[in-house]
Design brief:
2 domains, Rossmann fold, two-stranded antiparallel sheet
């Protein structure tokens, strides 16, 4: 372990780098990876005997937040904790997985084998190795957002003795649902979000159709490479599950075209903004392992693509006047041809989609005996993690309190994190 310390106004950082095995069952199979974590404490509390709160980011495939100050959920957390912002393996500064870093593997199969070790089970193994190096046998608390909540349930399955309390926001998974089950539950939610969007912005029905037609008629290159296809544009529906998503999407769409001396064409700013909204190139783990988040002893076989055929309303060739529908957080095999940083990983991605021997993520019998206090914010209208899945899991796991609310969308932690974390802490401590 190596460390370094620095400070900014309102925060003191200690940066930790740990050398950990890729495969805990066979530590010599690969060179060790670096796992990075940034410890954050309020000024004046550097030497205080504070417990740790470990933050597990959503995704999969995204690094921990890079705070510029003590705001949001971090402000509340720093009243009680040292906060450990963990870059999950393969993300941020933790030996990131990208098209560049995967070049040295000899074949798509060796790439797929390597990436298969980057799910929640090994993220939790990393956390346990880090805990023992930082605080020995002492317990710590954890906060999981979205996919981070999946990590939290895995932690409760694998090492509950390490945990003092667990906070979850928008991320209680089903313990048994397959990827197919997940998308059968979420596609109707995406359809409902589309209906609400077009009800708020009815003028966008024609704008969206116009954009899709233009993309169908023209070969449009993205600023960063690759092509902008109708399917890629319609992936902007991922934003519909966020509190400000309707407005984000509307403002982008209204700025799509510009008139030039050559006639009408796409505004470069529109294409640039579209690219910024889609992080698939910069965070390939999301595409590679999104469906694997749900698979236990089964193969996903590109579940979202297969089930899309059951929902004809998503046909981007549909005739007017029906609105063209945006898709949600799903990943599709055509992305491996459209996004330039996914193209070198296409064969590996297809192998991962066919992999059927994924280990179990959750020990249901152990979870039935849970004694760790768990408090979870469950968003009633969550487009990504169905509320009914969260409720079903809570019936299995004792000592889990739910706060079911329609006050927030999936990004409640980002939208109003100080209040969300404060309420969850009160719930674990008997205040609510």
């Amino acid at each position: 372990m190596t460390t370094s310390t620095q400070s900014i106004p309102g925060l003191v950082f200690t940066e930790h780098r740990f050398q950990l095995p890729v495969d805990y069952a066979n530590p010599g199979a690969y060179p060790k990876i670096t796992v990075f974590a940034r410890e954050v404490v309020a000024p004046g509390k550097e030497d205080a005997d504070l417990p740790f709160l470990v933050f597990f980011q959503g995704g999969p495939g995204f690094g921990a937040p890079r705070p510029g100050g003590a705001g949001g959920w971090l402000k509340r957390a720093l009243q009680d904790f040292r906060v450990l912002l963990l870059d999950q393996r393969g993300t941020g500064l933790s030996s990131p997985i990208t098209a560049q870093t995967m070049r040295h593997f000899a074949s798509p199969q060796t790439q797929a084998d390597y990436v298969s070790h980057f799910r929640a089970d090994n993220i939790v193994r990393d956390a346990e190795a880090i805990r023992k190096q930082l605080i020995g046998d002492k317990q710590w608390s954890i906060l999981g957002q979205s996919f981070g909540g999946f990590c939290a349930l895995r932690y409760l399955s694998a090492a509950p003795e390490a945990l003092k309390e667990v906070l979850i926001t928008g991320g209680i998974p089903s313990l048994t649902a397959t990827a197919d089950d997940v998308y059968r539950a979420t596609y109707p939610r995406v359809i409902a979000k589309n209906a609400r969007y077009y009800a708020r912005y009815p003028g966008d029905v024609s704008r969206v159709r116009d954009i899709v037609q233009y993309l169908s008629d023209n070969n449009i290159a993205m600023p960063g490479g690759g092509r902008c296809t109708p399917q890629r544009f319609l992936q902007l529906g991922m934003a519909l599950g966020m509190s400000d998503g309707f407005e984000t999407l509307h403002y982008l769409i209204e700025d799509a075209f510009v008139t030039t001396s050559s006639g009408r064409e796409f505004n470069w700013n529109f294409l640039s903004a579209l690219e910024c909204e889609q992080a698939f190139d910069s965070n390939p783990i999301y595409t590679l392992l999104q469906e694997a988040c749900y698979t236990q002893n089964t193969a996903s076989n590109w579940s979202a693509e297969r089930l899309l055929g059951d929902y004809a309303v998503f046909d981007h060739n549909a005739l007017a006047p029906a609105p063209l529908l945006f898709t949600g957080e799903m990943v599709y095999p055509w992305m491996l041809d459209t996004y330039p940083q996914l193209q070198p990983l296409k064969d590996a991605a297809n192998l991962l989609a066919k992999k059927a021997d994924w280990p179990m993520l959750y020990d249901v019998e152990r979870l039935r005996k849970n004694t760790v206090p768990v408090a979870a914010a469950v968003y009633y209208d969550d487009m990504y993690v169905p509320c009914e899945f969260s409720e079903a899991t809570a019936k299995i796991v004792p000592n889990m309190k739910l706060w079911i609310t329609n006050e927030y969308e999936h990004n409640g932690l980002r939208a109003d994190g100080e209040n969300v974390v404060d309420r969850l802490l009160k719930m674990t401590r008997g205040g609510l």
